[in-house]
Amino acid sequence: MKIIMLGAPGAGKGTQAKQIAAKYQIPHISTGDIFRANIKNGTELGKKAKEYMDQGLLVPDELTCDLVMDRIGQEDCANGFVLDGFPRTIPQAESLDAALSKIGQKMDFAIDVDVPDSHIVKRMSGRRACLSCGATYHIVAIPPKKEGICDACGKELVLRDDDKPETVQKRLDVYHEQTQPLIDYYKKQGILHSVDGTQPMEDVFANIDAIIGV
Ligand code: AP5
Ligand code: ZN
């Protein structure tokens, strides 16, 4: 099963993608997490990506596409995968389709997690992330057991550099301009499904599960 998670920054793509990956035993591939791991490890890719991410801009397609194509070509992706944060532009979507069609495959589902902008800004200011294992929390909706500490790995939780309110607004603008057109792109392919992302996390997952679990 090959799934794309679409939605504005903070819509809950990552939260849902992790649950899908766990239930269906497929890898969760988050380009944002891959870039953040590279930043943390001080790689060349990380240094380049950080310049764009800190401004709320997209990392250029040429740095992003090869990385994803390499990842989905790995053995653990043979039975499918869930893409979170990719594709984010029409050229990225086209290169994904081209890579899959070469091996006679195509994406199965594009799930749009729909949340209005007004909700997003509130959510982002409450998000706390573990940069060690990628777990995410929300200080009100999904608090960790011990304040500021990751339940999964015991490391410190932080407010992401790009979750400052002024950067969140820029990310929303970029989303509407460059990523939202993908909704029509996948609608035309007949694989788009929308879910209401303002509901509690478990309800959002139940809705997604009803779509993909056929
Ligand atoms: P990325 O890490 O992908 O960020 P994003 O798309 O902006 O998405 P987020 O991770 O911010 O949010 P999310 O939708 O996963 O929400 P989450 O589940 O955490 O990318 C970061 C940057 O990397 C980009 O800005 C760009 O620069 C670069 N980049 C990445 N991919 C790229 C690409 N393909 N091309 C170019 N550049 C790329 O939830 C948010 C919060 O809400 C959490 O606190 C969560 O606990 C809480 N929450 C979730 N669901 C609910 C719910 N139902 N009710 C209440 N709270 C909830
Ligand atoms: Zn952790």
From TrEMBL:
Span of domain Adenylate kinase active site lid: 127-162
UniProt keyword Kinase present: yes
Reactions this protein catalyses: AMP + ATP = 2 ADP
InterPro entries per record: Adenyl_kin_sub (IPR006259), Adenylat/UMP-CMP_kin (IPR000850), Adenylat_kinase_CS (IPR033690), Adenylate_kinase_lid-dom (IPR007862), P-loop_NTPase (IPR027417)
Keyword Cell division attributed: no
Localization annotation: Cytoplasm
Region NMP, annotated ranges: 30-59
The protein's Enzyme Commission number: 2.7.4.3
Residue positions binding Zn(2+): 130, 133, 150, 153
Pathway: Purine metabolism; AMP biosynthesis via salvage pathway; AMP from ADP: step 1/1
Residue segments, region LID: 126-163
GO molecular function list: AMP kinase activity
Keywords for the protein's UniProt record, in alphabetical order: ATP-binding, Cytoplasm, Kinase, Metal-binding, Nucleotide biosynthesis, Nucleotide-binding, Transferase, Zinc
Pfam families tied to this protein: ADK, ADK_lid
Known role: Catalyzes the reversible transfer of the terminal phosphate group between ATP and AMP. Plays an important role in cellular energy homeostasis and in adenine nucleotide metabolism.
Family stated for the protein in its record: Belongs to the adenylate kinase family.
Name under which the protein is recorded: Adenylate kinase
UniProt gene name: adk
